Design the sequence.
């Protein structure tokens, strides 16, 4: 199979469907076009190029002093297994199967699978975090293959943990660092094991973990803090030892909230669900920057208001990928199009920017200016946590394309291909086909492709940035009929009997939008963030915009993309510079932009880039 051209993603496995609410099980997806090309390169040059035995062999040697070597096999499994089945890659499946046997063969009589010495297990460091990922890896393999040995191994490892922690035993939130966030994040997989086995012991242990996440002075207080309005960047901390007592750690916090979403799904815990939704909204409002990325030194820090400055270790890819996954779960749980807006912004900007063009690596941090860099190696392995997590972002995007609840079928994201979903109201399968060049172009066509007519409500997400969206619907051989009521940031509902070939055409509003913050300006067109890039060779990428530059109604135009290094290019006309007493400086300058995901993609100084452009200032006394 040519993995760098078209990738066919067929028959989404039951595992993905079961992780979603019962009302949104997607069972078939195929995509084409540029996103498929990028994903195909990732599968071929990252997932398939990685040897899972390199990670699995670490379980042989119980001598780890405190690092996180044992997270890597489980992380790899979470993307490699789905991609192996999507692409029907038998060689990849065989490699994975060998690694599964290796991991299981190293399980100790008490159920432990890891590489920490006995006197350091389930205490300091990242041992329990590794246990979580090992269970997730085993469960993923079981869900796709039915391998009962993998399920049994995951259960034995879970029971090993349950034998140490629980009421009357040790406190889980007093292990590791960051107030137990890494350790308590195993809530998600404990709920998963309960769902697959029906054994109430796992549900009881999940209930205990929920209490560890919120009760007591030592806990990270994820539910009570959220409901009290405490922002993620202001959560409990101790300035003397932030790494141990802070609960602001972005990736691990969101991992715990994903566990709380799973808990709420199986128990109906409205308080936990409300805390998850509230935290998601607070992250979007106060932490996520214009690229859809977030975090500084891997922590929340109120970054949305500070993004025009350069902070240390911005936009960790583990945070970006986990934010995509968290938003996907919130979308399924709430059917709120806000979360699809967030997925789209992050995916087309921060996420794709983090991937090397050949798909072989993901950066560790993705800044809004400067250049891209390879990350450091972690845990004496030739990779790092972000590189291992990177491929999972594509799965979040794919499984959010089309969802359903009792009310309607929702088209959340726009990419060429086909997608199917079972509408829980009737139990019928609904299949839709989309053709689009989005987001390079501003149109998309969605066609009903089932043989038999069906009446259902189709909800189309109207992006929050699309102020004037035009929608028409037509039957085969008929005339297009305008559908009124398209509102930015909401779903547009079309309730009718659909016949094979019925088509909806959407034209989005790609009017360029200027954004002001802290005396700087940035620009977006549709879902794409724009950036200056040194490769254009026209002007200084740090050049100052004149204070009367047309920032609020920018003159920015799409241009023909003649360089394969760029996905989309633009040209803007702006008053620039500060020497406007010179008559020649009173005319606008041409500024070249590209999409942010293409900016800096040589990963060298030749493609240094910048998103926020400074605007000249006037002293307040003048």
Sequence:
């Amino acid at each position: 199979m040519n993995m760098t051209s078209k990738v066919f993603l067929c028959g989404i496995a039951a595992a993905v469907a079961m992780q979603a609410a019962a009302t949104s099980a997607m069972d078939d997806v195929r995509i084409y076009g540029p996103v498929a090309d990028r994903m195909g390169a990732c599968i071929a040059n990252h997932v398939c190029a990685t040897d899972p035995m390199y990670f699995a062999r670490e379980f042989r040697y119980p001598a780890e002093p405190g690092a996180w070597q044992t997270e890597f096999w489980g992380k790899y499994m979470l993307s490699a297994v789905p991609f192996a089945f999507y692409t029907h890659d038998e060689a990849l499946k065989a490699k994975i199967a060998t690694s599964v046997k290796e991991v299981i063969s190293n399980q100790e009589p008490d159920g432990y699978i890891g590489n920490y010495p006995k006197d350091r297990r389930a205490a300091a460091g990242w041992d329990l975090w590794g246990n979580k990922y090992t269970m997730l890896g085993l469960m993923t393999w079981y869900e796709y293959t039915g391998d009962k040995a993998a399920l049994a191994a995951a259960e034995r490892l879970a029971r090993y943990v349950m034998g140490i922690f629980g009421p009357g035993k040790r406190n889980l939130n007093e292990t590791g660092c960051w107030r137990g966030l890494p350790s308590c994040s195993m809530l998600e997989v404990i709920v998963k094991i309960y769902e697959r086995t029906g054994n109430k012991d796992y549900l009881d242990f999940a209930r205990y973990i929920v209490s560890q996440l919120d009760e007591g002075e030592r806990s990270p207080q994820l539910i009570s803090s959220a409901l009290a309005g405490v922002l993620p960047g202001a959560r409990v901390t101790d300035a003397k030892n932030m790494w141990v007592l802070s609960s602001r750690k972005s990736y691990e916090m969101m991992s715990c909230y994903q566990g709380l979403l799973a808990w709420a799904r199986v128990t109906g815990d409205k308080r936990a669900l409300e805390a998850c939704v509230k935290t998601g909204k607070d992250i979007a409002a106060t932490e996520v920057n214009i690229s859809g990325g977030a975090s500084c030194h891997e922590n929340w820090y109120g970054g949305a208001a500070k993004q025009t400055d350069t902070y240390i270790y911005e936009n960790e890819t583990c945070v970006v990928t986990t934010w995509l996954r968290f938003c996907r779960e919130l979308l399924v749980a709430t059917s709120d199009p806000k979360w699809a807006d967030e997925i789209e912004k992050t995916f087309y900007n921060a996420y794709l920017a983090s991937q090397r063009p050949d798909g072989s690596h993901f950066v560790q941090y993705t800044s809004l200016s400067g250049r891209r860099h390879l990350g450091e190696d972690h845990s004496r392995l030739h990779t790092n946590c972000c590189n291992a997590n990177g491929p999972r972002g594509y799965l979040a995007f794919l499984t959010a394309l089309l969802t359903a609840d009792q009310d309607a079928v929702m088209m959340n994201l726009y990419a060429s291909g086909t997608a199917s979903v079972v509408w829980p109201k009737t139990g019928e399968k609904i299949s839709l086909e989309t053709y689009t060049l989005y987001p390079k172009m501003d149109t998309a066509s969605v066609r009903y492709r089932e043989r038999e007519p069906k009446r259902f409500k189709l909800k189309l997400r109207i992006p929050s940035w699309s102020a004037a969206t035009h929608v028409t619907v037509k039957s085969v051989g008929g005339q297009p009929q305008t559908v009124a009521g398209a509102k930015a940031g909401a779903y547009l509902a079309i309730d009718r009997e659909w016949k094979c070939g019925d088509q909806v055409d959407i034209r989005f509003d790609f009017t360029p939008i200027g954004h002001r913050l802290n005396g700087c300006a940035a620009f977006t067109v549709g879902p794409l963030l724009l950036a200056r890039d040194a490769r254009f060779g026209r002007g200084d990428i740090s050049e100052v915009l004149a204070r009367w530059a047309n920032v609020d109604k920018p003159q920015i135009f799409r241009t023909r993309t003649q360089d394969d290094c760029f996905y989309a290019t633009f040209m803007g006309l702006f008053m620039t510079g500060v020497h406007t007493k010179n008559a020649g400086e009173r005319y606008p300058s041409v500024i070249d932009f590209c999409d942010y995901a293409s900016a800096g993609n040589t990963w060298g100084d030749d493609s240094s880039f910048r998103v926020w452009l400074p605007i000249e200032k006037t002293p307040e006394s003048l």
